[in-house]
Design goal:
Blueprint (H helix, E strand, L loop, with lengths): L25 H7 L6 H30 L5 H42 L4 H32 L2 H10 L2
Helix pairs in contact: 1-2, 1-3, 1-4, 2-3, 3-4
Length: 165
């Protein structure tokens, strides 16, 4: 193999292949800490995650615009890329995981209060630890569920539009 030969480089998606992806999990971390921090911190974590979702959607729209050049239907394809990415990310990165961690933490705090005599600060820290440790286990099932949901609904509308062109 020639060492001077160029290897095809994989395009790095900054929103999916780098540390920036973790910004999408900011609201789950905020929800896990809800029992310990002011609610403004939790809402701030949602703001960070929402900026991430929006930036990813805009990025995918720009990439679709470049990919389709001046071809007919470019505007529709860009809109589909933006909407699909935004809806997917909003559901898979913000809404469903945020709700899930919120409920896991609320249930654990309630159950710890009913089943232990631990002081409230210990129960709150334990709840936060449970919430944080839950995050890695919910990511893949939520992502797959959102894929299924969009494939069964919104993406059918997109594919119908493509058939009519």
């Amino acid at each position: 193999m020639d060492p001077n030969e160029e290897k095809p480089s994989k395009t790095v998606d900054i929103y999916r292949d780098t540390w920036v992806r973790f910004l999408g999990y900011a609201n789950e971390v905020g929800e896990a800490f809800r029992a310990l921090v002011p609610v403004s911190f939790v809402w701030g974590s949602y703001a960070v995650a929402t900026v991430y979702v929006t930036a990813d959607a805009v990025d995918k729209g720009k990439k679709a615009a470049v990919a389709h050049g001046d071809n007919p239907g470019k505007t529709t394809r860009v809109a589909v890329a933006v909407v699909d990415t935004f809806v997917w990310q909003a559901l898979a990165s913000v809404i469903i995981p945020g709700f899930t961690i919120n409920r896991v933490c609320a249930a654990s705090l309630y159950l710890l209060g009913r089943t232990t005599r631990w002081p409230l600060p210990v129960r709150k820290w334990t709840t936060t630890a449970i919430g944080l440790s839950t995050i890695p286990f919910i990511i893949t099932p939520i992502d797959r569920s959102v894929d299924f949901l969009l494939d069964s609904s919104l993406r059918k509308v997109y594919s119908e539009e493509e058939k009519h062109k």
